[in-house]
Design a protein that fits this description.
569 residues, alpha/beta, 10-stranded mixed sheet, 8-stranded parallel β-barrel, 17 helices, 32 strands
Length: 569
């Protein structure tokens, strides 16, 4: 009998992954397609971080052309402890053999990838392998519009997609803020895959990919951190927290989501409120789940006497006009009252109404076992595990970070979940290791943490490549551009100086030109002179332009745009 690859499921998460030193914040996962050279590639000094294996029903490794090139067991031995396996299955004949293999060899840390047209099969295999993650192959598919696509992805128990290039960065950003991450083929143009903001790049030339990573200046990024307004947009004092007016303000200002809290009243109405009682925000002090709505609707806010408590259905109607600002719903059941089932059913019914915001509502559940219940009753909605971290703090230790990810997988097994911890436990290495697994991490910050005391720690979230930041203080980042693109001519006289110029996309949807704070990565055919201008000999050049945006604590981040080609004539 063959020796088990791992002694426990926990050991399968204990990997010594290669993390290249580079200026990119959480560089995309370097992913290799398994072929006849797999053992040699894994033994190199710069091995891939993930390996995609195409398996048939006999668990034989297939080439992209469908030829048998190896044994799954031997291939797993080659990547053991060094890379995360992405197992590509396009036949249900592989399900039972893979389940037996995973059980015998304690394989828990893996991603299961299936074709989009066979997406109904993915939940079947993920129920058999609950520690795994799900990915759908969208290459070559005619995709529905965004709302339908996001619903199909989540209903299929996936949180990742596989795309072929070229990819529009705006499309990936829309997926990202709904807790969906994209892997992109990068053999033809790895720079274009990076520029789209891909979480993973599939490429056979690992050395070339890592060399590209090393070309970027410090604190470079292609993935602007989505900003989620905690308790809606309220910290500026213009709007009350957890209110319709504050949620609509987040939509008008172009934030990536508005987080709210939902509770039951004494007579079963859904209201937007955080605490058990009303004493902190309202003039009268009553217990929300013991008070009927008819009484709650008349109490007034302390600092906004013209406003009262809002109902969830009214808020969802108001947010229908802002589909690009998803509503993040945190379910606030009262411990001991067992309200989760009633809350879930009422939320589902309100979301289903024609007048409610559609297709971009995200659910956060406090209790991990409850995640599966929510997902079963609202399978087409993004789901996230919201946790309260008291003792753990950020660490650079790879083994400890891997084990934290394992504990997250244990807590959420069977649920299609993102991860929403307190920002104090998130470090750069945790983010890189989570992204290699395709796990979405968007931290939250306490409402009573004043910006003056915690702003520096919150800003660090930007420099860790987080997939979102749920904070009261999103307005401190309002001036950061959402996207960058070069504003250079397509041709230029050879030998003549070309000043750098780029365009920045603001949250209001407007592009503006700038020649300041620009940096460049020259891919080919050009050079930078002492004056910061481009020059080139006759022929084609390709460059990436970035804008170094200031962060509130006197640090900065360089946001790069897509590659641009210039012909020097």
């Amino acid at each position: 009998m063959k020796k088990p690859i791992y002694r426990s499921f926990a050991e399968s998460f204990r990997l010594n992954l290669y993390l290249p030193a580079c200026g990119l914040i959480t560089p995309p996962t370097a992913t290799y397609r398994a072929d006849a050279n797999l053992a040699r590639v894994m033994a190199s000094s710069r091995p891939p971080q993930a390996v995609m294996m195409h398996l048939n029903g006999d668990l034989q490794l297939l080439s992209p052309a469908g030829e048998k090139i190896g044994d799954f067991y031997e291939s797993m031995l080659a990547i053991r402890g060094k890379a995360v396996p992405i197992l590509y299955l396009d036949s249900d004949a592989a399900f039972e053999p893979l389940f037996r293999f995973a059980d015998e060899h304690c394989l828990g840390d893996m991603t299961i990838c299936m074709p989009y047209e066979k997406r109904a099969l993915l939940p079947v295999i993920r129920k058999m392998l609950p520690l795994s993650r799900g990915m759908l192959d969208l290459r070559g598919c005619v995709l529905p519009e965004l709302v339908e696509l996001v619903g199909n992805i989540y209903e299929s128990d996936a949180t990742m997609v596989l795309l072929s290039g070229p990819i529009e960065g705006d499309f990936l950003r829309k997926l990202q803020k709904r807790f969906i991450q994209a892997w992109v083929e990068g053999d033809e143009s790895p720079a274009a895959a990076l520029a789209a903001g891909a979480c993973g790049v599939i490429c056979q030339d690992m050395n070339g990919l890592y060399d590209l990573y090393a070309m970027f200046p410090a604190r470079s990024s292609f993935r602007p951190t989505p900003l989620y307004a905690h308790k809606a947009y309220h910290a500026t004092g213009e709007y009350p927290e957890n209110s319709i007016s504050a949620t609509v303000a987040a939509g008008k200002l172009g934030y990536d989501a508005a987080e709210i809290d939902v509770k039951l009243t004494g007579d079963g109405e859904l209201v937007v409120h955080h605490d058990r009682n009303t004493k902190n925000l309202f003039i009268e002090n009553v217990v929300v789940n013991e008070t009927p709505w008819e009484e709650l609707r008349h109490i007034r806010r302390k600092y906004f006497p013209g406003e009262g408590m809002d109902r969830f259905d009214d808020l969802m109607t108001a947010m229908a006009d802002y589909p690009d600002t998803p509503v993040l719903i945190e379910i606030k059941g009262v411990p001991g009252y067992y309200e989760e089932e009633e809350l879930t059913g009422k939320i589902r019914d309100i979301i289903a109404r024609p007048e409610s915001q559609k297709g971009c509502t995200c659910i956060m559940g406090i209790h991990p076992p409850y995640l599966s219940y929510v997902h079963a009753h609202m399978p087409r909605l993004p789901l996230a595990h919201c946790t309260y971290v008291q003792k753990e703090s950020a660490t650079d230790d790879m083994d400890e970070n891997n084990q934290r990810i394992y504990r997250f997988a244990l807590e959420t097994q069977g649920a299609n979940a993102g991860f929403n911890p307190n920002h104090s436990m998130i470090g750069e290495n945790f983010m890189r290791l989570a992204h290699i697994r395709g796990i979405t991490v968007f931290s939250w910050t306490w409402a009573f943490q004043m910006w003056e005391g915690s702003g520096g720690a919150i800003t660090q979230s930007m420099l860790q490549g987080q997939d979102g930041l749920t904070s009261d203080w999103v307005h401190h980042f309002a001036d950061m551009p959402v996207a960058v693109r070069g504003a250079l001519p397509s041709s230029w006289p050879a030998g003549k100086k070309l000043p750098l110029q780029a365009e920045l996309l603001s949250r209001d949807g407007a592009w503006r030109k700038t020649e300041e704070k620009l940096e460049s990565v020259i891919l080919s055919g050009a050079k930078m002179d002492a004056d910061g201008c481009l020059t080139g000999e006759r022929g084609e050049g390709e460059i990436l332009l970035g804008y170094r945006a200031a962060l509130p604590d006197y640090q900065d981040i360089c946001l790069f745009g897509p590659p641009q080609k210039i012909v020097f004539e």
